[in-house]
User: What shape does this take?
Amino acid sequence: MPFDRLIDFSELRRLKPYRPSFGWFRGRCIDRVYIEQFLSRHAQDIRGHCVEIGEDQYMVRFGNNQITQADVLDVMPREGVTLLADLADAPGLPSNVFDCIICTQVLMCIYDVRAAIQTIFRILSPGGVALITLAGISQIAPPTMMAEGGEFWRFTRFSAQRLFADSFGVENVYVESFGNVLAATAFLHGLVAAELTTEELAYNDPDYPLTVTVRAVKAAPNV
Assistant: This one.
């Protein structure tokens, strides 16, 4: 089936999106460009005992043979999941264990996001790194794309910085945002990365954050 690339952007003058559901089945979603660039830049952090929330695709892709043990954590049991827990209420997860936590586009779906961040902090080993991505400007995921529940939150650089600094300390949190008005408009209409140029995707306007990223380090205790 040929790729139906949008050429005439006047087609976006409409009340319903050009394609619903992020263009999920048409190609690489625009937000994934920013998510994967972020993880690629911080691939050196993906090492030791790692856990990825939901699936293992980014541990496999960016681990570069630095991973000694890999787990997949999810709230629902299914093939490939090795740890069953709700990040917002996970007393059964051990503390100070993971060298890296990869959590992409998950915290929007957890109502008690502060509790989830505190769990992430608790289960990281001292010196461990959490690599987090969050939705900024985005549609709400339709129920057909959600295993259960729905989405509660969208984030800015400022809310992400405040939330993670409360647990990790401001000096241990680095927050960025990526996107621009064209990328955000295209994403809302379900266009995919191939329908924008590399330059259009790369331009970053902090007033139009499509994706927010967080690198948070659990400080080692003073000795």
User: Anything to note?
Assistant: The CA atoms of residues 180 and 207 lie 8 Å apart. The two ends are 62 Å apart (CA to CA). The longest helix spans residues 30-41.
